[in-house]
Amino acid sequence: MRGRGDREHGRVRVLGVDPGTAVTGWGVIEQRGLKFYCLGHGTVATRPGTALAAKLAVIHRALADRCGEWEPDVVALEKSFVGRNVQSAFRLGEVRGVTMLVAANAGLTVAEYTPAAIKLAVTGNGRAEKAQVERAVVRELALKGPVAPDAADALAAAICHLQSARLHALVAGTRAARVAAS
Amino acid sequence: MRGRGDREHGRVRVLGVDPGTAVTGWGVIEQRGLKFYCLGHGTVATRPGTALAAKLAVIHRALADRCGEWEPDVVALEKSFVGRNVQSAFRLGEVRGVTMLVAANAGLTVAEYTPAAIKLAVTGNGRAEKAQVERAVVRELALKGPVAPDAADALAAAICHLQSARLHALVAGTRAARVAAS
User: Fold this and answer.
1) Which positions in chain B touch A95 (Cβ < 8 Å)?
2) Tens-digit pLDDT profile for residues B104-123
3) How far apart are CA B88 and CA A1, in angstroms?
4) Contact B94/A90, CB-based, under 8 Å?
């Protein structure tokens, strides 16, 4: 396990989360230089028929454990309210709240991305199909074994965060270069 | 402070919560015999402009502290997704998730009631106005000082839980009496 303390300068570690009451996906990606490495991924499944509050407690504990294990610098989440009904937005909100709480309690920032931004970052197409996104995640991270769909979505959110951060750095760098040249 | 341990048999203590990202209301009611007593009520306000995750952490800590202080037997919540849009259902869900987590971590059951059920229990009218509900709460609990609207809503949810429990007990009692008589 590599902690935040002994990590080299310039390395960023992101915990991506795909929240869901039944299955919550997670994945940890570290950027070293220009490359992304997947350190771990998986899902937290709750038992059907148990009370929602108990499910939330299971998800909370599992994500807090993942934060303790991988010590990410940031938590990336999909901002996925588009096209859903009020009832399912409500349910999804409940798991998202618990996810954000884990991040806040670990002192981490939460970065949210729209589904279109994630698809664009991972596949180059903001309207990509779910299966396309999953294949792109496997390719980008050179994953060997099988990846659960929810874990792939979590990894996609994490990739999106790193791509955005890279883009922001590039834009800032270009501006700084222009200022220096003028 | 009266803990769960030293409470007499037949007394039930309910923590009502009215979740909100900006203001979360809470209120503790204890039933002794046929009467309801308000033990405490208040609100948790978060600072505007801070990150949502940080707000959720503030709400989580405050509600966990209230649970520790009052040692309720159950947490009552309004199931209020009716007439709201997807975006606000999402936000509300996030605070609800954190509230349910507090209950689960304290080993408490969460009881949810629709706005109509709460209005009916408190005022006798399922379509009562907000101000009517607030006045009924103040009257029912013989509250002296001012009550914040969100705290009144939290107390209303708690009253609804105790009224429902009483009704269930009555129905069960009637059934038992019928069975005994038959």
Assistant:
1) 97
2) 999 999 999 999 999 999 99
3) 40
4) no
Contacts of A91 in chain B (CB under 8 A): 93
Is residue B98 within 8 angstroms of chain A, CB to CB?
A: yes
Cβ-proximal residues to A36 (8 Å cutoff; 6+ apart), any chain: A29, A30, A140, A141, A159, A162
Q: CB of A109 within 8 Å of any CB in chain B?
A: yes
Where along chain A do its domains lie?
4-176
pLDDT of the residue at B177: 74
Residue range B4-176 forms a domain whose CATH class is alpha beta
List the catalytic residues of B. Answer: 18, 78, 150
Residue B51 has a CB neighbour count (10 Å cut-off) of: 13
How close B137 comes to chain A (CA, Å)?
Answer: 27
Which residues in chain A come in under a pLDDT of 70? 1-9, 81-84, 182
Q: What is the pLDDT of residues B46-93, one digit of tens each?
A: 999 999 999 999 999 999 999 999 999 999 999 876 556 777 888 889
Tokens matching residue B173: 């009692």
Interface of A with B in 16-55 (CB under 8 A): 51-54
Sign of the dihedral defined by the CA atoms of residues B60, A22, B88, B53, in that order = positive
Instruction: Report yes or no: B145 and B137 within 8 Å, Cβ to Cβ.
Output: no
